[in-house]
From TrEMBL:
Keywords: Decarboxylase, Lyase, Pyridoxal phosphate. It comes from Nonomuraea mangrovi. InterPro entries: Aromatic_deC, PyrdxlP-dep_de-COase, PyrdxlP-dep_Trfase, PyrdxlP-dep_Trfase_major, PyrdxlP-dep_Trfase_small. Belongs to the group II decarboxylase family. This is Pyridoxal phosphate-dependent decarboxylase family protein.
Amino acid sequence: MDSHLAGDLARLPALLDSTRRRATTFLDGLAERPVVPAWPAPEPTALPSTGIGLEGALEEFARRWEPGLSASAGPRYLGFVTGGVTPAALAGDWLTATVDQNAMSSLDPTGQHLERETVGWLRELFGLSPAHQGVFVSGATMSNTVGLAIAREWLGESRGVSVADAGTAALGPVRVLSGSAHSSIAKALSMLGMGRDSLTTVALLPGREAVDPAALERALEQAQGPCVVVANAGTVNTVDFDDLRAVADLKRRHAFWLHVDAAFGAFAALSAEHAHLLAALDQADSVCVDLHKWLNVPYDSAVHFTRRRDLQARVFQNAAAYLGPLGDTPDLVHLSPENSRRMRALATWFTLRAYGREGHKEIVERCLACARTLGQAVEATAGLRLLAPVRLNVVCFTLEHDPTPQRLAALAEAAAPEVFLTPTVLDGVPALRAAFSNWRTTPSDARRAADTLRRLL
């Protein structure tokens, strides 16, 4: 055994304790750490022929890389829709690496059992019925891709072919309809061979990012056959929701697969004020939910639900002598693009078991309060303009005068040590958006963000 490797094994408890102390120091400093520090990238080095052991690697990491890391796990990283990691999720993730399970096969089944229990908890959290079965994937993009892959197989079924066997050439032209599709939808269509051009944008309700149900019905009539509808439960810019009940009701008159992108909007189910927005979510054929957003588990975690597990297994089955058969309860290896992966569900299991529905409801409601606080501050600040109502957890705003991308970028860059915001465009107007989804964030952080913006105007 390599001498450094043998030495690290002999000193592993002490070295892990050193790692714990470094992690704790980093986490303790999140509240005051520059949210996005101005730190130049280190000069790259060549692959070392001789190692320096874990202790040396820790020291070098602290010197070369840690100073440039953002406080993305902290309370004022409001760019994108980024959660942090709850204490229980952190413990679960450490243990995931410790036990190092590949939870894909019934030949070594405990990881699969834990994932199925966790998926059941999530299904209940979001108000889905047992008709929806789920599987963990890496993020919302992959969850949307899995949903559209199953939809593609459903389109084939409606035309008497199996796309999984015969390929997309057997499918013929495809139409995918959506009002405000997330960019990952077009990416998924590209990867799945249906093509970005298959996506048709349907007219929106006036002043909204929500699809106009009447326009959607007209588009379905023009489709002249089965197609796919991607509905939104929470758009990126303004967290607008399509009227899921109205969309689902169209299935009585038209044949289409209903995929709902609820990447972070699904968590509205935990708010009594907003749960009605998801009242018809269970009528979807497939649903995307991203867990490393508002559930506050580490990155690389999302869930995909579908009513048609049979089609899912037809798409993703992996026939090999060393794998279990499909059967009535397929192994996880037959349900997603991956043949192997870490036990993703464990961090989610830990945070749900540790804090339950009520604990995560409190996180959601506090984030909603933070978004309202910042939204009200924007409305009260001369020089800023709120571009849309604060519907859930995102505040979309711009400069009152001459809101060019360059001026907004300069404002965001100047604010970055205190608060991280991301650029966007809403109805042709360049803007900034602040998304509240971190379990550490409090209304005082929202006020601090507002104070920073006022100071920089």
